[in-house]
Design a protein that fits this description.
Layout lengths: L5 H10 L6 H10 L11 H17 L6 E4 L6 H12 L3 E5 L6 H9 L6 E5 L6 H13 L1 E6 L6 E6 L4 E6 L7 H5 L3 E4 L5 H15 L5 H9 L5 H18 L6 H10 L9 H13 L7 H8 L3 H14 L3 E4 L2 E4 L1 H6 L16 H4 L2
Parallel strand pairs: 1-6, 1-7, 2-3, 3-6
Antiparallel strand pairs: 4-5, 8-9
The structure holds adenosine-5'-diphosphate and magnesium ion.
The site of adenosine-5'-diphosphate (ADP) has 20 residues, from helix 2, helix 4 and helix 10.
Length: 357
Amino acid sequence: MNHLDAAEEEHLARLTAADADSDERAVEAALRPRSLAEVVGQHRVREQLGLVLDAARARGRAPDHVLLSGPPGLGKTTLAMIIAGELGAPLRLTSGPAITHAGDLAAILSGLQEGDVLFVDEIHRMSRAAEEMLYMAMEDFRVDVVIGKGPGATAIPLEIPSFTLVGATTRAGLLPGPLRDRFGFTAHLEFYEPAELDQIVHRSAGLLEVRLTDEGSREIASRSRGTPRIANRLLRRVRDYAQVRADGVVSHDVARKALELYEVDASGLDRLDRGVLDALCRRFGGGPVGLSTLAVAVGEERETVEEVAEPFLVRLGLLARTPRGRVATATAWRHLGLTAPATAFGGAPGEATLFEE
Ligand SMILES: Nc1ncnc2c1ncn2[C@@H]1O[C@H](COP(=O)(O)OP(=O)(O)O)[C@@H](O)[C@H]1O
Ligand SMILES: [Mg+2]
């Protein structure tokens, strides 16, 4: 794995800032698996990506462009770094929001060297003009740089070295078709199983020299919202508790008490998740309610509700997305300690098909 210098690490930190705070960045960097073999879970993605990389290495050529999609904290940035590491190629980092003009992208592309891996985080947030330039660069390793304005403008073709683009997005569906089609390989990251998170917690505890019992680890894993970033975060918070209020060992009891203190519930729902469910049930009678209305009710961006909170709530069977809006399931009502109305989605057997999207 090539090491990132401080500036790159800082840059990367900003890219993940929505979900990782400053104290977290350094720790995350230390906890990141450095090779495919070290990656826990995501078996299918790991195997497929391994093949793509092996084949490229065997041919001595840059591999196809790779698109990584999935909710925050599941390992997109980690995999991008691993791809570069496994290819022994430098990783260049940027993000969609940083590319506001085609010129920004042209500057990045023309600075690439043969075989570089270019990581564009949040690629769905790039400007339209830049997207169009990117299609051409991905396919023909060439961009047209437009000089001047109006009728006198001329396009100067510029050759760029062959590179591998790794794009990350929380929603592959938000990418325009032509851009999506130019990725030779798309990996969708899924939430992790508790047993996999358990493995991650043990691994991180080893690296951070935290003493923990198997039961303590399982308790953290089961409340981590299917997300490695959260598992690592909870581990550190529980360690604090263990050091201050106990003998330093993360036991089952210590983990449970600490997580209660930090308001992580037994299903791992965080404050936003609960806020969404709460608004849905208490304010909107269980729905259906439109995404925008729901977002306003919890004081969050539409995108955050849709891309961060909802995937996990859907996965737990607490929320359903229907053509008429979001609805709370009977399980959601029960989760909040409320009585589900008889009409609640999932309240009667066989009802699910009625609301299927
Ligand atoms: N498969 C995995 N195995 C072990 N740790 C992981 C895995 N995926 C993610 N992590 C950990 O979770 C943290 C967040 O991962 P990251 O790649 O930054 O997520 P994303 O870019 O998808 O938001 C990383 O610091 C890493 O330590
Ligand atoms: Mg990331």
